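Table 4 source record.
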Amino acid sequence: MNSEIIPVILSGGSGSRLWPLSRQHFPKQFLCLSESRTLIQETLHRIESLNSKENIIICNEEHRFLVAEQLRENDYLNKTSIILEPIARNTAPAIALAAFSAISKGTDPLMLVLAADHVITDPENFIIAIKKATPFALKDKVITFGIQPKKAETGYGYIQKGDCLTSDVFTVAKFVEKPDSLTAEEYLASGNYFWNSGIFLVKASVYLSQLQKFAPKIFESCRESVAQSSHDMIFVRPDEQCFSRCESISIDYAIMEHTSDGVMVITDMDWSDVGSWSSLWDISPKSESGNFSTGDVIHHSTTNSYIHNSNGLVATVGIDNLVIVNTKDALLVANKDHVQDVKKIYEHLQSSGRSEYLSHTAIYRSWGHYERIDKGTGFEVRKIFVKPKAKIDLQKHYHRAEHWIVVKGTAEVTKNGETFLLTENESTYISIGELHSMRNPGSYPLEIIEIHTGSYLNEDDNYSA
């Protein structure tokens, strides 16, 4: 009986409650919040002992280069398939893409479905729970993992246990939504309700048969979408037109609330979905005064607070129970008891057309990234970082000119068919309408100061040849 496990990592969502660190173009799974690795790298690291032959990551178009770079940093790129979800349609269709992809290769593995942005600080119990679940998954059950609740949490959904199958393994009685405070207290006191981790273990074929039974339109749309997939470098692109016909629905609603084959493994793996700044404070190491801080921070008479600083100095005096997050372009100050409402700020920025919800000052591309240094009427200054051997494609602009100054490394510049090298402290000028490209021929990162001048400086003034 095949017991191969393929991790399926869902890397979607915006993490809006962790603004201003988490942004639409740089959500929380790409952040280092509690370890030296980012959350998505931690997710991959904790499943290494499973010795899987392949990982599957489902992400969107905007994040594809971030995912690839974070995989490359930890040597996971060669054993990972990156499937680009054409449009956001929640977890049920996303998992179907992975299941059809696995089946198309002639295998029927167990899929371990994980979120890319969760924190698990007891990986040993995590692996033990997977091993407990495996025999049931091999018998065509759909396994979910219930977390032993430590408090009456209102930020999580819950699962009610049903009949006992073995120690810590039960049938699923029902899934329930995030409760109010009184209901959460009742759940905790009863001992019959467990936090919904959003982690699943199921055969690819079983998942698809359940989907065909309970959500046949999603099944058919995903089947056609994967059948018509195209490949772009290391990325797999399912067909957008087919996939767009899917309903946006979670696996909980699409399958788990209807199936009679649901099984819950109860575990205590020190799990958190890090859905708010207060949940991050809960799992972070704290001083005797209850403070967690990172960056250049000075405290005086400060207690029970979370301070994350990545820009300049932050000094706190006489505060309690606050969250302070300081980035290059935004500062958040919030009472820790009201951090769920940070999403309201995010939504306001979005509806107002402001850029602070969308991205940081650093913007990532396939060739590297750039940081905005300054911007005003008719000009913008950037610092560009080009990876070794990487190239910025041939392009031209109709409304702006550019001035490039090499700060570190060597640039191979092409202008109107002429190619030449620039080294440190050398520069060149790109006129409006002039075809140009740049490559880093060296073995070390190339750093350039780029100055834009002109009447229109937006990214869409860009013709790629």
